[in-house]
Design a protein that fits this description.
It holds the Pfam family Ni_hydr_CYTB. It comes from Pseudomonas spirodelae. It is found in: Cell membrane. Belongs to the cytochrome b561 family. It is a single chain. The chain is mainly α. It is built from 7 helices and 2 strands, in the order ααααββααα. It has one domain. Helix 1 packs antiparallel against helix 3 and helix 4 runs antiparallel to helix 6. The radius of gyration is 18 Å and the shape is elongated. The N and C termini lie close together (11 Å).
């Protein structure tokens, strides 16, 4: 279950792939801009956006705590690109944390309240809070950044697997 210098453990892999699936689902929201969301994705998956985002906020917290507890034994990047790899992972973690936080700012700043998986956690107020709205305005640009980081992350993993033919992808794939 624990990570080792050679590979990520079961908990790290479960968190990684569960979040990858949920983030992929969340990024489908970008397709909501096509035809004003009047299509299957906009009508079926997008209504879950706030609930899945809230779940991701919890999961990123768990993932950060787990990563900190495993930091001494995790696989470490080596070579001249190691600083870039660390920076890329840092940006991924930061954007995964900031996405749901700025989403909360949108919801609360506009007085929408917060309803997660059908449970009203914070009541609608209808009151606008300018500073929360300002922070919430970062949500959409962060989504594009996250998309770019995810594409880069996948591209790097595939590059390692198919071009460099090393075990980088296998460390997380199981």
């Amino acid at each position: 279950m624990n990570d080792s210098a050679q590979r990520y453990g079961g908990i790290s892999r479960l968190l990684h792939w569960a979040m990858a699936l949920l983030i992929g689902w969340q990024l489908l929201k970008l397709g909501d801009r096509i035809n004003d969301g009047e299509h299957w994705i906009g009508q079926t998956l997008v209504p879950w956006h706030v609930s899945i985002g809230s779940l991701l906020l919890i999961l990123i917290g768990v993932r950060l705590l787990w990563a900190l507890s495993q930091r001494q034994q995790r696989p470490q990047p080596v070579g001249p690109t190691a600083p870039l790899v660390k920076a890329g992972h840092g940006l991924l973690y930061a954007s995964m944390l900031l996405m749901p936080l700025t989403g909360l700012c949108v919801m609360l700043g506009n007085g929408y309240g917060l309803k997660v998986f059908g449970v009203q956690l914070l009541a609608k107020t209808g009151l606008k809070t300018d500073w929360l709205i300002s922070l919430g305005n970062l949500h959409s640009p962060l989504a594009w950044l996250l998309l770019a980081l995810v594409v880069g992350h996948i591209g790097a993993a595939l590059f390692h697997h198919f071009v460099k033919k090393d075990d980088t992808l296998k460390r997380m794939a199981g």
